[in-house]
């Protein structure tokens, strides 16, 4: 698919089903190729800039790993304090500068819309690794890949999304992707952290089946997979409000065994307390495999937007 050449990856809603399937297929192909090779030559000589204005472990490191596994090079930073932003430089000027150096830009920034702003300035394709409480499309793609791999299918499943659906950008991107599949969605959140109305309105308009509840055990009974999320502490204006909500949902091994032993559990990570550590050894606990899948999925995106695969 040559339509990916030069494409900015900004929003979960930007893809067609065919494009989603193609990204998944390319990611799967890279996964297979890495079984016999440490790295490939596909992006030799290419430079990716990783501009992380907000904390990150998996997104930045898996983007960087993806680039290295493709034979490419990486420049970048992992906090704004070490850059000219600390001197008062604007995002626009930082992007205009990095665009002189890099063939592709992966970025994370606290402001909603920042990746789109960068994409409007940069000639290099921009891959949004999270814009505040907005979108996180590359995570949603690796989540889709993980569901496909863990369950063998996406169509026909019931997926429970639980936790901070208000501020969680991974779920905002995710639902835009699941709407292309015949997925039944159940949203579980405290009232204060429900899925934003503009998201549910778009889903309704697209004819997507979804339910909203506060009852996690009841939802789990019906689930093929659970997508657990962290309460997004950094988005709360009032720390007391966070304290009130942080223990809202905690998944334990006992719950899984009593309610739904075949449950597949995903989480974008980092986890705080919302999944007890005794879940980690449950065969359905997929979240660390999911983190690995981030490498294959980001390899696919990097190779597609640079036109090194089509
Ligand atoms: C998520 C994020 O940054 O939005 N993490 C990630 O990219 N894997 C989820 C989170 O921080 O809770």
Strand line-up across the major sheet:
7-6-5-8-9
Tally of helical runs: 11
Secondary structure class reads alpha/beta
Distinct compounds present? N-carbamoyl-L-aspartate
Rg is 19 Å
What is CATH's topology name of the largest domain?
Answer: Rossmann fold
* Major sheet summary line: 5 strands, parallel
Q: What's the average pLDDT?
A: 97
- End-to-end Cα distance: 5 Å
- Report helical residue fraction: 25-40%
Bin the strand percentage.
5-15%
Which blocks of ≥5 consecutive residues have pLDDT under 50? none
CATH class identity of the largest domain = Alpha Beta
Descriptive overview:
The protein is an alpha/beta fold. The protein has helices at residues 17-36, 58-69, 91-98, 114-121, 137-151, 169-178, 197-205, 216-221, 239-245, 253-259, 287-305; strands at residues 47-52, 73-77, 104-109, 126-131, 158-162, 184-188, 210-213, 225-228, 264-266. It has two domains: 12-134 and 294-305, Aspartate/ornithine carbamoyltransferase (Rossmann fold); 137-290, 3-Layer(aba) Sandwich (Rossmann fold), CATH 3.40.50.1370. It contains eleven helices and nine strands. Strands 7-6-5-8-9 form a five-stranded parallel sheet. The chain has a four-stranded parallel sheet with strand order 2-1-3-4. Helix 1 packs across helix 5, helix 1 packs across helix 11 (287-305) and helix 2 (58-69) crosses helix 11. It is globular. It binds N-carbamoyl-L-aspartate. N-carbamoyl-L-aspartate is lined by residues 58-59, 130, 136, 139, 169-170, 230, 268-270.
């Amino acid at each position: 698919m040559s339509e990916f050449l030069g494409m900015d990856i900004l929003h979960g809603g930007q893809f067609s089903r065919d494009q989603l399937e193609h990204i998944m297929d390319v990611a799967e192909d890279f996964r297979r190729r890495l079984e016999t090779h440490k790295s490939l030559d596909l992006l030799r000589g290419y430079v990716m800039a990783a501009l992380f204005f907000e904390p990150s472990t998996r997104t930045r490191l898996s983007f960087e790993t993806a680039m290295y596994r493709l034979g490419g090079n990486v420049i970048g930073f992992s906090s704004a304090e070490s850059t000219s932003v600390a001197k008062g430089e604007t995002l626009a000027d930082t992007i205009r500068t990095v665009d002189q150096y890099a063939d592709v830009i992966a970025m994370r920034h606290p402001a909603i819309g920042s990746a789109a702003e960068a994409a409007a300035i940069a000639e290099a394709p921009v891959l949004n690794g999270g814009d505040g409480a907005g979108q996180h499309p590359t995570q949603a793609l690796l989540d889709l890949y993980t569901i496909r791999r863990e369950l063998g299918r996406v169509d026909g499943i019931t997926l429970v999304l639980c936790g901070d659906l208000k501020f969680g950008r991974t779920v905002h991107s995710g639902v835009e992707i699941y709407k292309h599949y015949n997925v039944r969605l159940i949203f579980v959140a405290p009232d204060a952290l429900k899925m934003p109305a503009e998201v549910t309105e778009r889903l309704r308009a697209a004819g997507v089946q979804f339910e909203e509840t506060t009852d996690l055990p009841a939802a789990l009974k019906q689930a093929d997979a659970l997508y657990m999320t962290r309460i997004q502490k950094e988005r709360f204006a009032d720390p007391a409000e966070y304290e009130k909500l942080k223990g809202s949902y905690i998944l334990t091994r006992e719950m899984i065994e009593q309610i739904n032993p075949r449950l597949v559990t995903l989480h974008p990570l980092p986890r705080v307390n919302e999944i007890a550590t005794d879940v980690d050894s449950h065969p359905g606990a997929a979240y660390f495999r999911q983190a690995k899948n981030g490498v294959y999925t980001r390899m696919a995106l990097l190779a597609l937007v640079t036109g090194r695969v089509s």
